[in-house]
Each structure stands twice: as C-alpha cells, then as structure tokens.
Design a protein that fits this description.
- By secondary structure, the protein is an alpha/beta fold.
- A hairpin with a 2-residue loop joins strand 5 and strand 6.
- The chain has a domain of 178 residues: Rossmann fold (3-Layer(aba) Sandwich), CATH 3.40.50.
C-alpha cells in the first residue's frame, strides 16, 4: 500500500492552483502529456489501461521534478470498436485534442513538453501532430511510447525463457503492470491463452488488423472481434505476474524520468544544440 498523499502533489498539474503552477515556470519544468486508452485487454484485465500510463508518467515526473498534465484516457483504435465498453476517438478527434493539449502550454511560452504514450496505436497520429506543431511553431515535442520502450533484457529479466510466450495484447506487458499497480482489478481465473482465428483462410496477426499471405504481413481493416473472440491477440496471460509488472514499471519510470531530466536541459527549437545550451527566449504558438 502506498502512503496517503497529504496536500497537492507538486508533480501533478491537476492538484496545483494556477498561481502555484505559474510560480514553477521560472524553473522551466518539463510538462508531460500522458496518453492511454479505454479498450478491451482480454476478459481478465481492466479496460482502463490509461491507468498504467498515468501512474508511470506521474512517478517519472515526481522523480525528475517535472509536471504531469491530466491523462487523456481515450485513444485511437478502430479495430477495438466491436467490444462494448471501449471508447475510441476518431483520428481527426484525436489529432485535434492532442494539438489543443500541446497548444495549451505553447500559448504560454512553455516549450518543454513531452508525450508519454501508453497506447501503441496512437503512435502514427502523434507523429503527425508533432510534425505539424513543429512546422507551425518551431518547437519539437518528443514522444515516448511506453510498451515499445522495453528492451529484450528487461523482458528476459521479467520472464526469462517465457518472454515470447507472455508477450502480446491481452497478456504482457499491460497485464503484469496492472497486477503490480492495481492487483484488485485483475482476475487471472478468467484468462486463457490467445486463440486467434484465421481470416480469408489466412493466419491473422497479433495486432488484429492484419494477416499473413505467403509469409508476408498485409493490412486488413478488420475488427478485433473477427480475429479473437476474447480480445487476447497473443501471449498467455497465465504467465503474467506482479513481479514482472514491477520490473516493467520500474524500468519505464526510470527511463522516462531520465529522459525528462535530459530534455529539461535541451532547447526544443534547436536539435543541433547540446543539452545545457538553451536560448533565453521561448517561442509561442
């Protein structure tokens, strides 16, 4: 059990008054935009996987002296629309919301913004928005994609020889991370290994919206319900453990915190400059 929080958390924007936040601006803090999703994670795990992105981003901000904005709990995942309870944003909506989130800080000359993304399907839309923001303002906004950031060594530490068997949507890393962060929300008694169905007589891919033809992957606009009845794309959730979740969470928190400390020393408008060589002025949108 974590200790109860007494008073506003200095790393949580939602806890701060506007005057308390304004007083922090002289420090040039890094602002973190945490993104996640409300989507199925198999019959054993909560749909709110944004909880993991939020907790990791908050912990990293606390460690690095950064400030985390309230999490965006909805993402882009058209192929999950067939499962009730999910809340997917259209691509145009997601891009517009993310642009507005970034502009909320750039409008006040707060240029050190970092995206911490806990939903992999958001990635191409994030890249599109960040390119548009740079063209318009000159400011670079980095994005860290949490689940893609786990190196093979961390997977081996968490699962040993079972790393490949444990990996996939509906299994790890999300299930183990949720078992570590909120064990009361996970029920492995309801879990079973992935049992994907073929489509058009072809083997479907773990990422749902694709299949293999002649051993080569091709994209198909499928719904996940057409590929996996229980929403488990690959991996065996029975291999997930809170201990593995602690390993994943610790690595990701340290990794994000380390980058936030690095980014604070960078000029977001001048990628050729080394850290510590920051121009005195900050751009506005």
């Amino acid at each position: 059990m974590s200790e109860p929080v007494i008073g506003p958390r200095p790393y949580a924007l939602q806890d701060l008054s506007h005057t308390a936040f304004a007083a922090r601006l002289a420090e040039k803090p890094v602002i973190v935009l945490a993104l996640g999703s409300q989507e199925e994670q198999g019959p054993h795990a909560p749909m709110g996987d944004f909880l993991a992105a939020e907790r990791i981003a908050m912990a990293a901000c606390a460690q690095a002296g950064a400030i985390c904005a309230p999490v965006l709990p909805f993402g882009y995942a058209e192929f999950f629309r067939g499962f009730p309870g999910g809340m997917q944003l259209r691509g145009d909506t997601f891009r517009a919301v993310l642009r507005d989130m970034i502009d909320s800080f750039l409008d006040h000359a707060i240029a050190h913004v970092v995206i911490v993304n806990g939903h992999s399907t958001n990635a191409p839309l994030i890249a599109e928005v960040c390119q548009e923001v740079r063209r318009r303002t000159g400011v670079l906004v980095p994005a860290i994609h949490l689940w893609r950031s786990l190196p093979d060594a961390v997977w081996a530490e968490a699962h040993g020889a079972d790393a490949s068997a444990a990996r996939g949507h509906g299994a790890d890393p999300v299930t183990s991370v949720m078992m570590h962060l909120s064990p009361e929300l996970v029920n492995l008694d309801a879990a079973s290994p992935a049992r994907r169905k073929p489509v058009f007589g072809l083997p479907s891919d773990p990422h749902f919206a694709s299949a293999h033809f002649a051993g080569i992957s091709l994209d198909l606009p499928l719904d996940a319900t057409e590929v996996a009845d229980d929403g488990v794309g690959s991996g065996d959730p029975a291999l997930c453990t809170p201990e593995a979740g602690a390993i994943f969470t610790r690595f990701l928190t340290d990794h994000v915190a380390s980058f936030l400390a690095h980014w604070r020393q960078c000029d977001p408008t001048r990628p050729t400059r080394a850290p510590g060589n920051i121009a005195p002025e900050s751009p506005t949108a």
